[in-house]
Amino acid sequence: MRKITKGAEPEQLIRWKRANTTLRYRDLPGEERVSVRTACITEQFSLCAYCCQTIAGDNSHNEHVEAQDKAPNRTLEFTNIVASCQRQNQCGHHRGTRPLDLTPLMEECESELKFYLSGRVTGKTERANSALEILNLGHTEESNRGLIGARKQLVDQLIFTGGMQPDDLEDEELLGILLDDMLTPKNGQLAAFSPILVNVIRQLLP
């Protein structure tokens, strides 16, 4: 996960809520839902809120951080909505409405998960381990082998496309340059899985 900083509500959502003060998200028309999703994708730099794979409007959905059935009064709060990928066995679709104690709206989401160059991930806290299982982010090899493999492949590409070699992972200066590159959006987007590589680099740097 990568910390998401929520921005301003889309104007379309604001106008609709003003005209429909007693309604909930389930009543929100398609055009307004798309405006919410577009705003979320933009502020997430085109990354899924949970797995950090690249998403766009046609392969993502609006995800309520506090589930609609658990927080019915927050269903139209933009600060409670992120964009999640559409993969059926992970992220928002795997979670359902189970509560998350560690979310991408919290600073700790970047420090309580530990990623490895192998594509594996472990939690440093009980709530982190719970989030990994609920979202099926590869807490074991067997649970989501495909995601673990995709993470490893794309993280390798991010490292070696930049001209680094395996031995360079001990070079603090080069690691710092790569870290800055991974933290900098290009054309409003971050590279797929770049937050995972950022997590690994921060472990390697003193």
Automatic annotation (TrEMBL):
InterPro entries (UniProt xref): HNH78-like
NCBIfam families xref list: retron system putative HNH endonuclease
The protein's name: TIGR02646 family protein
Species: Pseudomonas jessenii
